[in-house]
Write a structure and sequence with these properties.
Layout: H1 5-13, H2 21-33, H3 39-49, E1 54-55, E2 58-59, H4 62-75, H5 81-86, H6 88-99, H7 106-121, H8 125-128, H9 137-147, H10 153-168, H11 181-204, H12 213-229, H13 239-250, H14 255-271, H15 281-290, H16 301-318, H17 320-325, H18 327-335, H19 343-359, H20 363-367, H21 371-386, H22 396-410, H23 419-430, H24 437-451, H25 453-459, H26 477-484, H27 490-511, H28 518-531, H29 534-537, H30 544-547, H31 550-561, H32 568-586, H33 602-613, H34 616-629, H35 636-646, H36 651-674, H37 677-685, H38 691-703, H39 711-722, H40 728-735, H41 737-741, H42 745-753, H43 755-764, H44 774-786, H45 795-805, H46 812-831, E3 836-837, E4 852-853, H47 856-864, H48 872-888, H49 895-908, H50 914-930, H51 933-936, H52 940-949, H53 960-974, H54 976-982, H55 988-1012, H56 1015-1025, H57 1031-1037, H58 1048-1052, E5 1067-1068, E6 1087-1088
Antiparallel strand pairs: 1-2, 3-4, 5-6
Helix pairs in contact: 2-4, 3-4, 4-7, 6-7, 7-9, 7-10, 9-10, 9-11, 10-12, 11-12, 11-13, 12-14, 13-14, 13-15, 14-16, 15-16, 16-19, 18-19, 18-21, 19-22, 22-24, 23-24, 24-25, 24-26, 27-28, 31-34, 32-33, 32-35, 34-35, 36-38, 38-40, 39-40, 44-46, 45-46, 46-48, 48-50, 50-53, 53-54, 53-55
Length: about 1100
């Protein structure tokens, strides 16, 4: 939203800086003389005041001139254009004196430039027709152009911005360019040419002052960029001269100059990418082509090639068909540079050709090529084949990159025109002495991706099953096929690779159970490599409906059951990819782009999914059986595959499958409950989980795809299992159901509808919750809280005690989840601010308890209730929970709440219980770091006094290092004087010690930095930044003192201890004859923290050490 004039003036009237006071005084004086406060009135009054500061003799009152011109700059954009045109001569004569004033500084020049900008934008076409020598807009603009290369950056930047706005806001005209754009371009180009010539002359004579011209040259380039980016781009008549100068500058050894020159080209091309300015592009490309440098000019040729590359990239966006027709000619011209002896030229040429292939081939050529398009493609293919001749042998690595880009650019149209390339590179790759195998593999891989494995294998057959005499085997192609196969015909895998796999597998079976020979291991490896191709063939195949038939599905099912060679992983990944690749196409929200979608439209993808869904019931049955027979650590990929087929199964089939699974689950739970302890122990020894666990995994996976009718059964099962505390793992899985349902739209709707029912289930099952299930229970509560309606906020205080006490859980992930849940509940309360919390609905609360109003302060009061707990454990957990909430919501908590919390923390510091005090110390640290100083400083005296009392505990103070670190933090935040003032007299020696230690460290650090340089300091800073994952961790655990020996903050606040693990090494002392038995109770006596000396064997002589000359070395 634009700012009004009155808003700007109001801001000036209440200045923040002393230097702006003068502006406010002048403005008030002007307003006192005004009858009506309007832009015209302000402009007229200020213009009348300006001659008092600026006379024909020059600037007589600099301060007044600065203030008046500043206010004019504010007012002129709002002044009527007609008035600005009428007063142009008067303004020009006065402000021109400012521009030529030798003592004019930025505060005066910048608003003067702003005034010129506004009056020049207001000029009409007639005014712009005046010559540059007359008093008119051209002369004023020439002054701005002069300032645009000023050595002072702020003035230079303001002038460039003004030129840009003036040229972009020209008078109405049929011409694309501004009337003054030729003048600006000519002036800028002349300045650039002169400076470039001076710089070149200085370099030729090897003058030391040659570098002096480079800053001015960069400023001139910036001006050229400004003119080029404005209006309709750089004027057509000046393009040739500009290109010649820019190309000469771009070969400079100064990388900043080269980059600036390229930025100008980039701006010119960018300006021509729109339809209005595109008519200038052919002329520009023609000029650049005519400026082609010498064939072996290693300085100028690379930048010229880069400009050509960018130019035709823009041309392809504007005129794709015409640019494509020119491609063979361009390809031949640039590819000729690959024969250069200069590596830089070869690399530039290859990158340019790669750019052509990526940007200059329109989609219409790939989808529906005309006869003429096919001729162009044939010419390109001929050029590509020529690149493999001996002439370009030195550039074969660059050539391979270009050929790979050609396959990627031409896609499926590469077949058959680039078949000779595949054959030549394949033969090179098969030669043992060829050194570019890696690069050749990449080209063959891109060919496989572009034209498909079937076409490539016709040219380069594998020759594995029935090798022919004189033809090499190409097993090396299998890994390449695995990496690059996609979007091809699945039928080819069935006809080519399944028979090959069967042949190899039969040889393994024929060997029987005898010891495996090397040949058998090779055959097994080949089978595995063949089936590793299956996921690639399933990545958006072109013939899903034809190739994936009943026979193929049965074959895959049988292979999933066989265990001789484990192919389950690849088959499951392939089936998953088959479903998900088609789903990704259907999920696209844009119109069909058959090139982007690899020739598979949304309609075809949906047809593929419909076809695959007919196999879903049988495939799911097979996958369920395989899942139940697989050890838990190898099940993940099977579950992902199940998930994919569940997503396409029909609702009726899903309901039917779910019904079977739930009935089996119920009977399995009953069987497990009836088992004796001996039977349960026997099952554990078999390493396979009970059937109920497996079935529960499958039910959870199915849950997000189920129809609404099945949710009643689902929640009933969950409610039964959640109450079973005799099987913690099964209970843990049941809690996963709520977060899982939150992943789907239908599941979220079910959680909202059954929110009240689930609240009761969570509350009633609290006593049955087992320790292994704690983290998942908290995650389930978190998912439930996110869907909590405003009339059910009483659930938060009901569940809050369990969440708070979970902050002291042994399991780290459970503690972390508890902390996250505390914040989620706080966010929920804040979002529902003003709603009513029916406290009487909370268990153990009186029925007549008054309702509370939801607010952050009320939430903190709820958590604070735990401070009145009957056990130190509960009090400690409440302090820890409050600390986390305090830090997260510190900017929203009222000062009164802060004061109350600080008073409570102060009180608990006097407790004799160390568990409570340990948590309080962490809370105090967070307060010191994050709370406002005006809140903390009044409490420092009592806080420090109570802290120091713990340093007096005998025989050894338990929190000595923590308290020392807290005092250090206070000194860092509030200053040593404030802390010293609030410290008891007898304890001030600690403050003095900390101050002296800090000064010594600072002094040593400065000395070390001076001796080592700045590198090590930068490394240390980098390491320090990477130590913690969040600001809260930094606040609670961050310390410059490595002597902290407690580590309890981490245990209290749900984090792993971050102590430095680079402590002393531990050594085992053992006999040479008998190794140490670590199970022996006396083994601890043989563990040492100091490196044991090597025992000398009695009577064994040690050879004396000597140097190269044979002299004895003593004492080493």
């Amino acid at each position: 939203m634009s700012v009004t004039l009155q808003e700007k003036l109001d801001k000036i009237k209440s200045p923040n800086l002393q230097s702006q006071q003068q502006y406010a005084i002048i403005l008030k004086a002007v307003e006192e003389t005004l009858g009506e406060a309007s832009p015209t009135g302000y402009f007229s009054a200020l213009l009348a005041l300006l001659p008092k500061a600026i006379t024909p003799q020059g600037v007589v009152n600099k301060d007044l001139a600065t203030s008046v011109v500043y206010l004019l700059d504010v007012v002129t954009p709002y002044t009527p254009p007609a008035l600005l045109r009428a007063k142009f001569t008067k303004i020009f004569e006065l402000l021109a004196l400012v521009l030529t004033y030798p003592e004019a500084d930025a505060p005066l020049l910048r608003p003067s430039i702003g005034c010129f900008e506004s009056i020049l934008i207001a000029q009409d076409g007639t005014a712009w027709e005046l010559s540059q020598t007359a008093i008119g807009p051209r002369r004023a603009l020439a002054g701005l152009v002069y300032l645009a290369v000023d050595r002072r950056p702020k003035i230079r930047k303001r002038a460039q911005d003004a030129i840009t706005k003036v040229l972009k806001n020209g008078p109405p005209s049929p011409s694309l360019d501004h009337p003054a754009s030729d003048m600006c371009a000519e002036t800028a180009l002349r300045s650039l040419s002169d400076l470039a010539a001076q710089a070149n002359q200085a370099k030729k004579h090897k003058k030391a002052g040659g570098a002096e011209h480079e800053p001015a040259l960069i400023h001139a380039l910036q001006l050229v960029k400004t003119v080029a980016s404005a209006s309709g781009g750089w004027p057509s008549k000046k393009i040739e001269d500009l290109c010649e100068v820019l190309l000469n500058i771009s070969k400079s050894s100064n990388e900043y100059l080269t980059m600036a020159a390229f930025e100008v080209f980039e701006i010119i091309f960018e300006g021509m990418s729109n339809s209005v300015s595109s008519s200038k592009l052919p002329r520009l490309l023609e000029v650049i082509s005519e400026l082609r440098p010498s064939q072996n000019d290693s300085q100028l040729l690379p930048p010229w090639i880069a400009v050509i590359s960018r130019g035709y990239d823009v041309s392809a966006q504007i005129e794709p068909e015409e640019t494509f027709q020119k491609l063979p000619e361009l390809f031949d011209m640039i590819s000729g540079f690959l024969a250069s002896s200069s590596h830089n030229i070869r690399v530039s040429a290859s990158e340019c050709l790669i750019s052509f292939m990526a940007n200059c081939i329109p989609n219409s050529v790939l989808l529906e090529p005309s006869v003429y398009d096919e001729k162009v493609l044939g010419k390109l293919a001929k050029g590509a084949i020529d690149l493999l001749s001996v002439k370009y042998q030195a550039a074969w690595m660059e050539t391979f990159n270009v050929l790979g880009a050609m396959f990627d650019g031409l896609r499926w149209t590469s077949d058959p025109i680039l078949a000779p390339v595949v054959k030549t590179i394949g033969e090179l790759r098969g030669n043992e002495s060829f050194t570019g195998k890696k690069e050749a593999d990449e080209v063959i891989g891109t060919a496989i991706r572009a034209i498909g494995p079937e076409s490539v294998l016709k040219i380069l057959p594998l020759n594995l099953a029935k090798p022919k005499a004189g033809q090499p085997g190409r097993a090396w192609m299998l890994p390449i096929l695995r990496e690059y196969v996609s979007n091809t015909n699945l039928q080819h895998f069935k006809t080519e690779f399944i028979p090959l796999s069967e042949t190899m597998f039969q040889r393994v079976l024929d060997h029987g159970d005898a010891e495996k020979t090397m040949d058998i291991k090779i055959f097994e490896t080949l089978v595995l490599q063949i089936w590793a191709l299956f996921p690639g063939y399933c990545d958006l195949p072109l013939d899903s409906t034809e190739a994936f038939d009943q026979g193929f599905a049965e074959l895959l099912a049988n292979l999933l059951y066989q265990l001789k060679i484990d192919l389950r992983s690849d088959i499951c990944k392939g089936l998953q990819t088959l479903v998900e690749s088609n789903k990704a196409i259907v999920a696209l929200e844009t119109e069909d782009d058959l090139v982007l979608q690899s020739r598979v439209s949304k309609a075809v993808a949906q047809k593929n999914l419909d076809h695959l869904s007919t196999f879903a019931p049988n495939m799911l049955a097979v996958l369920f059986n395989v899942y139940s027979e697989t050890l838990p650590q190898y099940r993940a990929y099977i579950l992902h595959c199940i998930n994919a087929f569940l997503s396409i199964a029909s609702p009726a089939e899903l309901a039917k499958t779910f019904e079977v699974a739930t009935k089996t689950l119920e009977s399995s739970i009953a069987e497990t409950s009836a088992q004796t302890p001996a039977e349960k122990q026997k099952q554990k020894e078999q390493k396979m989980p009970p059937a109920s666990h497996t079935l529960m995994d499958l039910v959870i996976t199915m849950s997000i795809y189920l129809p609404r009718e099945s949710f009643a059964t689902l929640f009933n099962i969950a409610s039964v299992i959640i109450m079973k505390d005799d099987d913690p793992q099964l209970q843990k899985k049941s809690y996963k159901l709520i977060p899982r349902l939150a992943e789907s739209e239908l599941g979220r709707l079910a959680l909202q509808e059954r929110n009240s029912e689930l609240q009761q289930l969570i509350l009633s099952s609290a006593s049955k919750a087992t320790s292994p299930a704690k983290r998942d229970r908290l995650a389930a509560i978190a998912a439930l809280v996110s869907f909590l309606p405003n009339d059910s906020l009483h659930f938060i205080p009901a569940i809050l005690p369990e969440v708070v006490i979970s902050c002291k859980e042994i399991n780290e992930r459970a503690r972390t989840t508890a902390f996250d849940l505390l914040i989620s509940m706080g966010d929920k309360i804040v979002a529902a601010a003003g709603s009513t919390i029916e406290i009487s609905k909370v268990d153990h609360m009186p029925d007549d308890e008054a309702p509370k109003t939801a607010s952050l302060d009320e939430y903190i009061m709820m958590v604070s209730a735990g401070l009145a707990g009957s056990t130190p454990h509960m009090i400690s957990a409440s302090v820890t929970a409050l600390t986390r909430i305090l830090y997260h919501f510190r900017e929203s908590i009222s000062t009164e709440t802060f004061d109350g919390l600080l008073q409570t923390l102060d009180l608990f510091l006097t407790s004799n219980n160390r568990e409570i005090v340990r948590s309080v110390l962490g809370a105090v640290k967070v307060c010191v770091i994050s709370l406002p100083t005006e809140v903390m400083i009044p409490r420092l005296s009592t806080l420090i006094e109570n802290l120091m009392k713990w340093n007096e505990v005998k025989p050894k103070p338990p929190f000595k290092s923590k308290i020392k670190h807290l005092i250090e933090r206070m000194i860092r935040r509030y200053g040593v004087d404030v802390v010293n003032k609030n410290t008891p007299e007898k304890d001030r020696k600690l403050v003095a010690h900390i101050r002296k230690t800090k000064e010594q460290k600072k002094r040593r650090k400065a000395e070390g930095k001076a001796s080592r340089g700045n590198d090590s300091d930068d490394e240390e800073e980098t390491k320090r930044k990477g130590r913690f994952e969040s600001e809260y961790d930094e606040a609670v655990y961050g310390s410059d003192d490595s002597s902290d020996d407690s580590g309890s903050d981490f245990e209290e606040l749900g984090q792993k201890s971050r102590k430095d693990k680079k402590g002393g090494n531990t050594y085992i002392v053992e006999d040479e004859d008998e190794p140490l038995d670590l199970l022996d109770r006396k083994a601890l006596a043989n563990i040492s923290t100091t490196k044991p000396l090597k025992q000398r064997t009695p009577g064994k002589k040690t050879k004396a050490k000597t140097d190269l000359d044979g002299k004895l070395l003593l004492g080493l």
